[in-house]
Design brief:
Elements lengths: L1 E6 L4 H5 L14 H14 L6 E4 L3 H14 L3 E3 L15 H8 L13 H16 L5 E6 L1 H12 L16 E5 L2
Parallel strand pairs: 1-4, 2-3, 2-4
Antiparallel strand pairs: 1-5
Helix pairs in contact: 2-3, 5-6
Length: 176
């Protein structure tokens, strides 16, 4: 199966450098994030996408709806695609990164470790691999794309720590 993974458009917390992993907190897209999502459609319009799955966090859901709506596809939300539960809701990302710096794969600082998160996302990917689909668009978070990359390339999580993914740039992976 071919996966096209898209990190959500710029959010209000992205520009403030804050963590957000609680879907009940309405952290939506900025105007720039909306424009990024609209621009992503132009990059995806020639793809034969069978399904769109998204994180339920507002920034990812809004991005997915903007993209999928223009492609004529319905969005399915899956909680397993929600962002890593950092334990730092509303706090600076730099504080979270400093707190896990000693062990960015297995450290838990009030939430999930990257390994825990990879297990959650991996459960979704295992389920997805059983579906009769050829090309799937996933709209989620940078950490989600890291996990997908590690699985697709069959590399340890340590190999993807800190990998950067641009907002609303489509990245292609094979689901293995």
């Amino acid at each position: 199966m071919r996966l096209i993974a898209l990190r959500h458009g710029q959010s209000q917390y992205n520009i403030r450098g804050l963590c957000n992993d609680d879907a009940s907190i309405p952290v939506g897209l900025t105007e720039a994030g909306e424009a990024q999502a609209d621009a992503a459609v132009e990059l995806l319009v020639t793809e034969s996408i069978d399904a769109v799955f998204a994180s339920p966090l507002p920034r990812a859901h809004q991005t997915a709806c903007r993209v999928a709506g223009k492609l004529g596809i319905t969005v399915a939300l899956d909680t397993r695609l929600g962002d890593i539960r950092s334990g730092f809701e509303g706090r600076p990302v730099v504080e979270y990164l400093a707190a896990i710096a000693h062990d960015p794969v297995d450290a838990r600082v009030g939430g999930e470790s990257l390994r825990d998160y990879a297990g959650r996302v991996g459960g979704f990917l295992d389920w997805l691999a059983l579906q009769p689909l050829e090309t799937v668009l996933i709209v989620a978070h940078e950490e989600t794309l890291r996990v997908i990359q590690a699985r697709s390339e069959d590399v340890p999580l340590e190999a993807i720590v800190g990998t950067s993914f641009e907002n609303c740039r489509p990245y292609g992976f094979l689901l293995v």
